[in-house]
Amino acid sequence: MKISVMADILEANDRIAAANKEVFGKHRNLVINLMSSPGAGKTTLLERTGEAVRGKLRLGVIAGDIETTRDSERLERYQLPVVQLTTGTACHLDANMIASALPHLDLSRIDILVIENVGNLVCPAEFRVGEDFKVMILSVTEGDEKPLKYPLMFRESALLLINKVDLLEHTNFNLEEARANAQRVNPALEMMDVSCTTGRGIEAWISWLNQRYQRKFGNLKRA
Amino acid sequence: MSIAQSILDIAIAAAGKEGALRITRVNVVAGQLRGIVPLQFTFYFGLLAENTIAGGAYLNLEITPIRGRCRQCEETFTVEEYRYICPKCRGEDIQTVGGTELRLKDIEVE
After folding, report:
1. Cβ separation of A3 and B84 shorter than 8 Å?
2. What is the pLDDT of residue A221?
3. Domain boundaries, chain A
4. Which residues does chain A have within 8 Å of residue B106's beta carbon, measured at their own beta carbons?
5. Measured distance CA(A213)–CA(B87) in Å, rounded
6. Cβ–Cβ of B33/A9 closer than 8 Å?
7. What is the pLDDT of residue A223?
């Protein structure tokens, strides 16, 4: 016997994501879902971001990791409110995990909430968590063909940060090729070259965040 | 892997509602943009289904192509090799209208 189901497999997740989004909107939080491979520089980017925005805008972080709490320990040094989620076997964060983290954050004291996803170029792109934008990092030590191998993440992202550009000369990474591949998958994708080591591009990234915040909510809560 | 688990959960719930004893086949539609690797996916599914009423069920994956709609001339077309360019007017403002779906279509039970 055949039973027709026609169920959207991600529907349950998307419903919770929509509820999260409503909570974030109420607290005037701009929410970024930050994704990359392991070791591309997500935590280091957040360290640099925390330094750069101190006293100007209030950053909060939900960090997902499979096992350890190292990321949150690194970020707490910058006096950022951080909630660490250890996902166990799951290779991504989903909307329900984010919902479970919210009671541990004072959202009314946060302007920009970055959700640092688990390092992985596949599954994190599948699950909405209630974000305004997906932002991804591709580091030059990875390879310029990545957009074609993992199209969904590049397709879903609003901004691509190409990190570790200070190491370009030591790699066979072709920046033009990477940009062209990314644009092919997502013509609307914005791109920036950054180096979390030298600080190159960090200012541009911060002003991108500022612009997005202002476009959504007008001025910052705390001038 | 959690997608395989979701499919299994939905399938078992649907079979339970009909009072079925065994699931023999599960038909899933997945868009190409989902980047699902069939071999890996069916392996995970088989692993998770062990010791459930879906143990040994055949997972049929239908991969649907990426479809785009040109915002300029409204032409709808299949996007090949991620070339988001309209074949009719060469426009580059393309809306994705297919290829992201992920659906459990139906199941076959005994």
Report:
1. no
2. 61
3. 11-215
4. 2-6
5. 37
6. no
7. 43
Task: Indicate the length of chain A as a whole number.
Answer: 223
CATH topology assigned to domain A11-215:
Rossmann fold (3.40.50)
Q: Which of A1-10, A68-77, A143-152, B57-66 has the lowest mean pLDDT?
A: A68-77
CA A70 to mean position of chain CA atoms? 18
Contact A6 B104 (CB under 8 A): yes
CATH 3.30.2320.80 for domain B2-109, yes or no, is yes
Instruction: Please tell me the distance from the alpha carbon of residue B3 to that of residue B7, in angstroms, as a whole number.
Output: 6
Give the Cβ contact number of residue A51 at 10 Å.
11
Start-end of H helices in chain A: 11-26, 42-53, 70-76, 95-101, 146-149, 151-156, 175-185, 202-217
pLDDT in tens, A152-180: 899 999 999 999 999 999 999 999 999 99
